[in-house]
Backbone:
């Protein structure tokens, strides 16, 4: 098992600082470096976290610079603008693509070995930008993808069925955004395929109920942003989960975003599919058995991301 290592977080806003807190609390790092263009913000977050250090496993936390990416196991990028009310994730693209490009150019001056984990939105497009700008192998670049969306999906299904969320296995795939798809055919509760028969009530949910659950997943970020201005706790826990899978070499199956090599004809684009995550990053992307309708929706989602990538000057 890899030892808890050095983790760098670039961007210490809501998402970056919540992620730092989650990683610190989980004892996943021995060194945690915070970098932000607003140096005072990174320093303030480091001070605040350090004051709780006596309550967690030993970890050194400091506000650093890109030189600190040397020897890092993982560099997490959460820097950039966030979604404003009414703004789609894709609206953010041009702004955040330039920010991402300059950050990655700085990171790769100091490391060729770190796993680069993208969180900034639109996460699939920017995961691709990280891949292109870094020149790193595909396995070494991933995005948080639909790990968060899948957690929202599992939570809502668990609520609907009144069952422990840990017994619900379900994936949101494709874009982390408006074109994402619910892979209903893969959904199972307690080992029973949800589409055949619900383990709990013995019936099938109507298409209307399923559509309502999926709409709540897809619109979750808009709903939260409309109320509190940003989302950060659940994404921080999703990132912590990905980091854990890497640091502990878990071979966990997570729907992270990565640049895929010909899945249903989809290639040269980053999007989420169930993948094995371990110390090497994305070890394997699964060619999962979807229905024809789900495949078409996945291809559509890939095309939407690709169109945005093609419109960028990177
Ligand atoms: P925020 O609170 O505005 O923080 C962004 C931080 O980035 C600020 O502290 C900035 O100073 C810093 N920053 C900006 N430019 C640079 C730069 N060039 N170098 C270093 N630091 C820089 O935003 P918040 O933390 O709420 O969101 C960050 C990103 O995460 C946004 O793009 C969100 O849309 C995205 N999210 C992604 C999610 C996902 O599931 N992938 C979920 C929630 C938010």
Residues:
């Amino acid at each position: 098992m890899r030892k808890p290592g050095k983790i760098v977080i670039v961007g210490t806003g809501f998402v970056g600082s919540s992620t730092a807190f989650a990683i610190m609390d989980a004892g996943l790092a021995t060194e945690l470096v915070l970098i932000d263009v607003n140096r005072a913000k990174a320093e303030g977050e480091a001070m605040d976290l350090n004051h709780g250090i006596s309550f967690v496993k030993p970890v050194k936390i400091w506000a650093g610079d890109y030189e600190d990416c040397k020897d890092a196991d993982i560099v997490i990028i959460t820097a950039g603008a966030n979604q404003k009310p009414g703004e789609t994730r894709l609206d953010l693209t041009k702004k955040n693509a330039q920010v991402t490009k300059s950050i990655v150019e700085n990171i790769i001056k100091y490391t060729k070995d770190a796993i680069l984990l993208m969180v900034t939105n639109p996460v699939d497009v920017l995961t691709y930008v990280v891949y292109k700008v870094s020149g790193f192998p595909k396995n070494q670049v991933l995005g948080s993808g639909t790990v968060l969306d899948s957690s929202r999906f599992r939570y809502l299904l668990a609520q609907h069925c009144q069952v422990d969320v840990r017994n619900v296995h379900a994936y949101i795939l494709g874009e982390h955004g408006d074109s994402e798809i619910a892979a209903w055919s893969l959904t199972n509760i307690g080992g029973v395929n949800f589409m055949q028969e619900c383990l709990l009530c013995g019936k099938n949910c109507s298409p209307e109920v399923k559509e309502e659950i999926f709409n709540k997943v897809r619109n979750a970020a808009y709903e939260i942003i409309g109320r509190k201005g940003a989302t950060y706790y659940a994404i921080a826990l999703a990132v912590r989960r990905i980091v854990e899978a890497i640091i502990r070499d878990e071979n966990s199956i997570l729907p992270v975003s990565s640049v895929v090599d010909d899945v249903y004809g989809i290639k040269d684009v980053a999007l989420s599919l169930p993948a094995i995550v371990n110390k090497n990053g994305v070890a394997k992307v699964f060619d999962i058995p979807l229905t024809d309708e789900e495949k078409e929706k996945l291809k559509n989602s890939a095309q939407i991301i690709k169109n945005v990538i093609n419109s960028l000057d990177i």
In short: The longest strand covers residues 29-35. The pocket of 6V0 is lined by residues 10-16, 36-38, 41, 78-80, 82-83, 96, 99, 102-103, 119-121, 123, 144, 148, 176, 230-232, 235 (CB under 6 Å).
